[in-house]
Write a structure and sequence with these properties.
This protein has about 325 residues and is an alpha/beta fold. The protein has two domains: about 60 residues, Phospho-2-dehydro-3-deoxyheptonate aldolase, domain 1 (Alpha-Beta Plaits); about 250 residues, TIM Barrel, CATH 3.20.20.70. About 35% of the residues lie in helices and about 20% in strands. The chain has eleven helices and 14 strands. The strands form three sheets. Strands 13-12-11-10-9-8-7-14 form an eight-stranded parallel sheet. Strands 2-3-1-4 form a four-stranded antiparallel sheet. It has a two-stranded antiparallel ribbon with strand order 5-6. A hairpin with a 2-residue loop joins β5 and β6. α6 packs across α7. The protein is elongated. It binds phosphoenolpyruvate and manganese (II) ion. Manganese (II) ion binds next to loops.
């Protein structure tokens, strides 16, 4: 962090501020230029409050030269993080496909979809038991019963399960039953939830918030990691833009950019990005070409009757066709599907 003092600031005020910053645990170098003095802060500046320094009447400008995140930062952890979910690896050259319905609806539905997606090569099963819906009148998910049905589907297929948590109160239940705990886009900045899932032993799939910057998203991962959980998978799921034709706009640039900024695996959700079945294949292929470490795709055994997101769900046959292309392209990109 660099602090530029106002021209002509008396030496005593410069020394006062330098001392105040040293008290906060960083080294401060003072450089006297022509008519202007610069303080260079060296050390861990993540906890230094930039706004507080700017309040000092003798300060002209404060600039951060390093990122405010440490644990998620590739600079301090150059090697890719590989998240291991019961033997299924994500990141570090390992490509994984997560597939399943938007919501768990019945035992027959979830077990049937689980068998179908497994047969096509999916490595993990998704399915929402707790659904964060825009309308309180929409299907809210089967809750605890839904979790039990996911456990049944895991028993039937061996596929580890990925499902969304919407409240810190559910942590114990999720710790016991779930293999990957999903934090949805709407909860990306639910800081209490992030701190609590940070205490779980299970990997966290952290979706990007609807209007969040890369830095805000990585800072959300930093919350989880700071609470003790280093196994975070980031998921780009489309963002809000002025375009209304698609449900969201898939931010392809996020994949190479965020992978440069962090060592965490980055996967893509082509279903919630485009919001249309016919966009799932092109968006999946684009994501793989841009370096994604995996995708999470909505698949339903009867999309027309789905209780949630049928319009963007593939049927098992369509998913099978997608998988053939996706695996081929992932290999071409040097990944291990
Ligand atoms: C989901 O994956 O079912 C979901 C609700 O996604 P998002 O949080 O990205 O909207
Ligand atoms: Mn959905």
């Amino acid at each position: 962090m660099v602090v530029i003092m106002r021209p002509g600031t008396e030496k005593k005020y410069i020394e006062q501020l330098a001392e105040q910053l040293r008290q906060e645990g960083v080294e401060v170098g003072v450089t006297n230029g022509v008519g202007c003095t610069i303080l260079g802060l060296v050390g861990d500046t993540t906890a230094i409050d930039q706004g507080k320094i700017e309040l000092n009447a003798h300060v002209e400008r404060v600039m951060r030269v390093s990122e405010p995140y440490k644990r998620a930062n590739r600079k301090f952890h150059p090697a890719d993080t590989v998240v291991d979910v019961g033997g299924v690896k994500i990141g570090g050259g390992n490509f994984a496909v997560i597939a399943g319905p938007c919501s768990v609806e019945s035992k027959e539905q979830i077990v049937e979809v689980a068998k179908d997606v497994k047969a096509s090569g999916a490595k993990l099963l998704r399915g929402g038991a707790y659904k964060p819906r825009t309308s309180p009148y929409s299907f809210q998910g089967l809750g605890l019963d839904g979790l039990e049905l996911l456990v049944e589907a895991k028993k039937a297929t061996g596929l580890p399960i990925v499902t969304e948590i919407i409240s810190p109160n559910l942590c114990d239940e999720f710790e016991q039953k779930v293999d990957v705990v999903q934090v949805g886009a709407r909860n990306m900045q639910n800081f209490d939830l992030l701190k609590e899932v940070g205490k779980l032993s299970k990997p966290i799939l952290l979706k990007r918030g609807l209007s969040s910057t890369y830095e805000e998203w990585i800072m959300a991962a930093e919350y989880i990691m700071n609470a003790g959980n280093a196994n975070v998978i980031l998921c780009e799921r489309g963002i809000r833009t002025f375009e209304t034709f698609t449900r969201n706009t898939l931010d392809i640039s996020a994949i190479p950019s965020v992978k440069e900024m962090t060592h965490l695996p980055v996967i893509v959700d082509p279903s919630h990005s485009g919001g249309m079945r016919r966009l799932v294949e092109p968006l999946t292929l684009a994501a793989i070409a841009a370096g994604a470490d995996g995708v999470i795709v909505e698949v339903h055994n009867d999309p027309a009757k789905a209780l949630c997101d049928g319009q963007q769900s593939l049927d098992p046959a369509q998913f099978g066709q997608l998988m053939a292309k996706a695996e081929h392209l992932a290999r071409f990109m040097g990944k291990r599907p």
